[in-house]
Design brief:
With 66 residues, the chain is an all-alpha fold. It is built from 3 helices and no strands. Helix 2 runs antiparallel to helix 3.
């Protein structure tokens, strides 16, 4: 497991801390978007574009890192 993690960090060109911070950022954004999408499912008038905007923003952020 440690070798796979080390290889992944090497492939990503990141330190453990930098990778941790970005992965937590993505996780938090996805969590918030998930709640917004759930609330939108119950009340369609709220958070009409929040989920798709979060996906687009995260997609762009991840691709900019490559």
């Amino acid at each position: 497991m440690f070798n796979k993690s080390k290889n992944h960090l090497t492939e990503a060109g990141e330190s453990y801390t930098k990778h941790l911070k970005f992965a937590c950022h993505v996780s938090f954004k996805m969590f918030v978007a998930s709640i917004q999408c759930f609330l939108h499912a119950i009340i369609p008038g709220v958070f009409k574009t929040s989920g798709s905007k979060a996906i687009t923003d995260l997609y762009n952020q991840i691709n900019e890192r490559s």
